[in-house]
Amino acid sequence: MSHHPDPASFRAAASRFSTGVTVVTSSGDDGAPVGMTANSFTTVSMQPPTVLVSLKRGRTWQAVSATRRYAVNVLAADDVAIGRHFAGAPLAQGTPTLEAREGFFLLPQAIAQFGCEVVNAVEIADHTLFIGEVRWCRHRDGLPLAFYASRFRNGLGAEILPADAMAYPAEGWTI
After folding, report:
1. What pTM does this model have?
2. What is the pLDDT along the chain (175 residues), one digit of tens a residue?
């Protein structure tokens, strides 16, 4: 007999693991960019350079499944609004700019970017683990946006306060 914690207890316990915040992007059916905020990103191997993202079914999942390509954009500490936008709380001032590079859509202000081709996809419950070989990457200095105890934080662990952040989960968010 299998026992599982209730979803609220599991979410609370998992929130005690600090993660970075990324935006995963790909190309939709019409070639236009799609993206979602995700904190389930990790390196897998250095040789060859390989990373993994875990995506729930939706537009970005469909795009990555179809194109077998995705980009991971690591957000800087001051990119809370962009993280919210791609989590389903659109910016009042419009859509963040995405630039195309070698067939990948990128957020120019990201502190790290990875262009990946899917080499394996593993279905687990309501998510898919997309394992991608990194075809190119770039980075710049800056503090990362972090997520800990259901709050956005800067890379030093300080909470980003009310004017800049909202507690998760806000209705409709998919971080």
Report:
1. 0.85
2. 568 888 888 888 888 888 899 999 999 889 999 999 999 999 999 999 999 999 999 999 999 999 999 999 999 999 988 998 999 888 877 788 899 998 899 999 999 999 999 999 999 999 999 999 999 999 999 999 988 888 777 766 666 665 544 443 333 333 3
| Burial of 1 per CB tally in 10 Å (0-12, 13-18, 19+) | exposed
Looking at residue 1, the DSSP 8-state letter turns out to be: -
Count of domains for the chain: 1
The CATH number given to whatever domain includes residue 57 is 2.30.110.10
Residue 162 included in any domain: no
Q: How far is CA 55 from CA 52, 70, 71, 102, 135, in A?
A: 10, 11, 13, 23, 20
Host domain of residue 84: 7-153
